Each structure stands twice: as C-alpha cells, then as structure tokens.
UniProtKB/TrEMBL annotation:
Residue span(s) of domain tRNA/rRNA methyltransferase SpoU type: 7-146
InterPro entries, sorted: Alpha/beta_knot_MTases, SpoU_MeTrfase, TrmL, tRNA_m1G_MTases_N
Protein's organism: Bythopirellula goksoeyrii
Keyword Cytoplasm among UniProt keywords: yes
The protein's name: Putative tRNA (cytidine(34)-2'-O)-methyltransferase
EC number in record: 2.1.1.207
Annotated keywords: Cytoplasm, Methyltransferase, S-adenosyl-L-methionine, Transferase, tRNA processing
Major subcellular location class: cytoplasm
HAMAP family documented for this protein: tRNA_methyltr_TrmL
Compartments (UniProt record): Cytoplasm
Family of the protein in this entry: Belongs to the class IV-like SAM-binding methyltransferase superfamily. RNA methyltransferase TrmH family. TrmL subfamily.
Amino acid sequence: MSYEPRFHVVLHQPEIPYNTGSVGRTCVAVAAKLWLVRPLGFRIDDYYLRRAGLDYWQHLEWEVVDDWPQLVANIPESRHWYFSKKATHSYTEVQYQQGDALVFGCESQGLPEEWIHGKSDRCLRIPTRPEVRSLNLSNAAAVASYEALRQWEA
C-alpha cells in the first residue's frame, strides 16, 4: 500500500523483531514511513517481526537502506530529530514539521555518539524517572509519533 507519509520513523540497526513490528504498527496508525538502517538483528521475513505487526504489516510504507549515507540521501539530516537518553531537550519542546524524521538507535546501544555530539538542538529526550534506564524502543517511537500528531491536530 502506498500513501504520502506525514513523517518518517527511522530505526538505526534495530535488533529485536518484536520491537520493529510494533513500531511498524504505530507507523501504519499515524501514516508514517518506517525506515530500517542495516545491519538488522533479524531477517526481514522473520516470523516474529510479522507477528508483532500482525495483519498491519501489509499496510505499512517501509524501506530498508544499507547504511546511514543512503538514508541521508533520502531524508536530509536537517529534517532529523535524534532521540537519546543523553539529550537535554524534551521531545515536547520542539515544533515537528511534516516530512521530519524521528530517529531512534538500536535497543542495546542507542544512537552512535558521533551522531548526537554537537547536535544538541536536534537531540531529544523522553523524560523518565532515574530508576528507568530507557523506554522500550517501540514505546519511545509511539510517544514521539503521537506528540507530532498532537501538535498538528491541536
């Protein structure tokens, strides 16, 4: 199924198929395109990936790219919002625009340090209590995606 995405959700080197499947389901719900940047911690035809996305996967607009430069060729870095527990700005402090990309790192490592170093104005944090190291990847993508929608539909 093809549609004009409102925005993009990027998963850099995702490792867990269930998380990616759940993010895919959220992307269908909010009309976002899902981008997966290799290497992936699973096969695209993985049973668990499809299982987590249930019957929504057929409605998902998605693309896999081999590396970061290939993603940037499709979505300019000026449109990226980087989500990191190391960021100081809250995800609610910025104005999302149609066509922006919400960029999330892999479950075990997050985003590469060099991507967020020197880009504090583009790095966002979803606040959590100190007892929580980080949110689950699929939860973080959903929280951020629905904040963008809230801004546009308010």
